[in-house]
Amino acid sequence: MEAAARSIIERCAPRSPVTLNVTIASVALRLHFATTHMAELFSGSFAAATSGAATEAEGWDLYIAAGDEGAVAAELIPAAGISATQLFISSEIYVLWMGSLADTFYVVDIPHRRALCWFASARRVPAWERSRPFLPILQVIFDPTPWVAVHSAAIAWAERGLVLAGPGRAGKTSVALAALGAGWRFAGDDYVLLRTDSAPAVAPIYATARLRDDMFRYFRELEPARREISEEVGERRHELSLAQTPQGGQIGGAPLSAIFLLDRRGAAKPTFGPVSRSALLSTMAAAMAVATPGRGRVRTQKLLQLISRVTPRLFDPGSAFGPALQALADAVTR
Amino acid sequence: MADILNTVFRPSGAEIIFRDFGEELVVANLNSGLFYSLVGSAGTIWTALVNGFTGRQIAAAFQTEEAETIAKEVEAFIVVLMAEELLSAAPSAVAATSLPLLDSFSKPTFERFDDLQGLLLLDPIHEVSEAGWPVVPSQALSS
What ipTM, to 2 d.p.? Predict the structure, then answer.
């Protein structure tokens, strides 16, 4: 498996790539796309990206290729009948086949700081992958660091970052986008990086947001940021890229002051309450294990470390965004 | 197991991780995807157990006239922890000594959270060995 993984990265690495340089927290990534078409698919996805020649600085090289654009990868394509997610991990190699979610695999050669994201077809890249590209690879890259990518929204007010955790449909995206509209800093609505050591912080990975169709009417001003409307399991989403919009300047991170588990219980006004750390961890770890499988022990330990420093609370935003944001601002500046 | 109260236990594997936050002790079983919130005496008992004390020693350390009642509660709690595959007997281990007196006793219970387990049941992740997974024959791709 290790030899196959290394060989496939070598073979699928584009010969004349379109390169994009991305900096995420302390890591420099050089994204090498096989074709202009593939580069366009992910254009505007990352929070801090510059196009042009690859830099020589120490960092990671991530190759992006597709089977229908010439990258042959038979060694890692599961035989018929294998639909579930497949994972191989050693100290040096990480290989993930996404199984039923997408015909995609992610390969990381850790000692050589190289990785490959391979799609069976460049024409069938899922909307969620374009919104939060290469996430399993990024998680592996951050494993030896204090950072971990988590399924949460994050915003910041007065240099104080706060995380909004919760399962799907909890309201993370709408509260985060309302905060963006009110002048807050925006670190992400879906996956963000959290620094879990003695200097807790939040940092953006992506410049995207995925807004449910029924919520779009509250955010008409973001129409210029819409790349497409996707439909997955019967739910329409407005896929936004904030990178080239006026709001793009508000994307950024901050020291972390608070973690809230969103729980809409029908309150008219925003309310806070206690929450067990186990409940928060269970929610965060569940999404992490599915979107970025593997190394659960290391990643859960990071989350445990984080919530030993920042006590989580329950937050019901109530029925209006304005009071909810005022309550959050009060909570982090008190 | 014949004599649970006199047995030394340990976490049942590397996939059991835990951390004591004072007012709450969190235990995670990364195999099953279940998270547990232990509060009050449950956290105290867990900490003493994984530090090598027996249920009998722990029950005695609560310093109450109802020692036998507490011993039964501790035993029942250990049985539950074993059933959840969080604890297993430590073979040929010798019990630790000098357990300090413990705070007042409350019935040990926990709350269980199963978000991860639910998702893993829907979309299981198969971790494979060096041999990898069966792959498409390369002739099939070129034909």
Answer: 0.88
